[in-house]
Write a structure and sequence with these properties.
This protein has 397 residues and is α/β, with parallel strands linked by helices. It has two domains: 247 residues, Type I PLP-dependent aspartate aminotransferase-like (Major domain) (Aspartate Aminotransferase, domain 2, 3-Layer(aba) Sandwich), CATH 3.40.640; 133 residues, Alpha-Beta Complex (Aspartate Aminotransferase, domain 1). The chain has 13 helices and 14 strands. The chain has a seven-stranded mixed β-sheet, with helices on both faces. Helix 3 crosses helix 7, helix 10 packs parallel to helix 13 and helix 11 runs antiparallel to helix 13. It starts with 15 loop residues before the first helix and ends with a helix. The relative contact order is 0.17.
Length: 397
């Protein structure tokens, strides 16, 4: 029996220039984003400007986490307590959690077999005149038909907030993920495409939205110390009307992120080579269905998803256990019991009066996910595919 010995959670080290700059900051003690001397820009302000340039967006705010970004994005867009917010049924728990935190009521939308949001169900639910917000998760790196998403949002006057935590560096028809919506939200948590342990970004082209987000983040009256921000006159009234939620990114995290951002496109190519090695190894496995990738999508293959539609619950559990015994960490999104970062939508019991979503249940019942760290080489990826193939074949016999 083949066995894999590397860790699925071990990340590459922070680039040396990030480490060196972080040490300089620690020696100086200037960790707070507003602690730069007069006439100088902080690491956080510089990071925001660089990320704005990378995305082609006017404004960027760096904050403490992707979940915080989503929460503040909704508040900045005008969400009020009790407002309904559409979101993917197939997503991670911080997304409905952020909606709840912002005072909204999550309204789950069904899922397609390619793991993207079901646009037919979205169209139906968006037609409800009381719904004005959509938090769209590009879950596990899968981007829906953004042309149609935008058309639906325009038709029904829906504010689109993109959860691009899993698609930083990806795109649709050449346009970067996170720039389609009224607001884009990103994460720099350790297992995302940039790693600062925790962290996030809010991006927008609307100056009032980003000004509110900056004040929410805890800028006090120091918004003039932002590079990727609107003119200070935009804050004239907003600074009095917007509470301080204290969610700033610090200079230490910004310092380790800046050199990673410079390597993001290079790392996208590295991830995709590893993804291709696993995909090729699994593509001929009978009964295993890999999520398709449309031509319009420029994805980042930091994980791979597939389904085993012929397997019942008992065989799914056996499949997960066989892979674990061989050292391959396969996450199963159909498990009724939340495990680690993985939970099914019906385990979020604080969400009341949700639709049954039988299609999402059916898809998640055999949905599997494998993380692909850059610490793996191509031979590692081929071995992973071989082990998965052996276990599917054994259980299918």
């Amino acid at each position: 029996m083949k066995r894999f010995s590397k860790s699925f959670t071990k990340q590459e080290p922070i680039p040396d220039e990030g480490i060196d700059r972080a040490v300089e900051l620690m020696r100086s003690g200037a960790l707070h984003r507003y602690s730069a001397a007069d006439g100088q820009w902080s690491e956080t302000a510089l990071l925001e400007a660089e990320f704005a340039q990378y995305l082609g967006q006017r404004f960027v705010l760096a904050c403490t986490s992707g979940g915080y970004a989503l929460h503040v994005a909704m508040r900045s867009a005008g969400l009020k307590h009790g407002d309904k917010v559409l979101c993917n049924a197939y997503t991670l728990a911080p997304v409905p959690g952020a909606i709840h935190n912002a005072g909204g009521i999550p309204l789950l939308v069904d899922t397609k077999a390619d793991f993207t949001i079901d646009l037919e169900d979205l169209e139906r639910k968006a037609a409800d005149a009381s719904v004005k917000f959509l938090v769209l998760s590009h879950m596990r790196g899968h981007i829906a038909d953004m042309d149609r998403v935008l058309a639906i949002c325009r038709t029904h006057a829906i504010c689109l907030i993109e959860d691009a935590a899993h698609t930083m560096g990806a795109g649709w028809r050449g346009r970067k993920s996170g720039t389609f919506g009224d607001i884009g939200c990103f994460s720099t948590q350790t297992y995302k495409h940039l790693n600062s342990g925790e962290g996030g970004f809010i991006t927008a082209d609307n100056q009032e939205i980003i000004a509110r987000a900056i004040v929410y983040s805890g800028s006090y009256m120091l918004f003039h110390r932002h590079l990727a921000a609107p003119d200070t006159r935009v804050f004239d009234d907003i600074r009095f009307d917007t509470p301080n939620y204290s969610g700033r990114m610090d200079n230490l995290r910004a310092a380790v992120l800046r050199p990673q951002l410079m390597r993001l496109d290079e790392n996208r190519a590295r991830w995709n080579r590893r993804y291709a090695a696993i995909e090729q190894g699994l593509s001929q496995v009978d009964g295993l269905v890999i999520a398709p990738r449309p031509r319009e999508e420029q994805f980042v293959g930091s994980s791979i998803q597939f389904r085993l539609p012929r397997f019942d619950e008992a065989r799914m559990r056996a499949f997960i256990e066989l892979n674990a015994a061989a050292g391959v960490a396969v996450k199963w999104f159909g498990d009724a019991e939340p495990k680690g970062y993985t939970s099914r939508f019906d385990s979020w019991r604080y969400l009341h009066d949700q639709p049954a979503l039988p299609r999402t249940r059916e898809i998640l019942a055999t949905a599997c996910d494998i993380r692909i760290p850059l610490t793996f080489d191509l031979d590692d990826c081929r071995l992973i595919a071989d082990i998965v193939k052996e276990n599917v074949t054994e259980l299918a016999a």
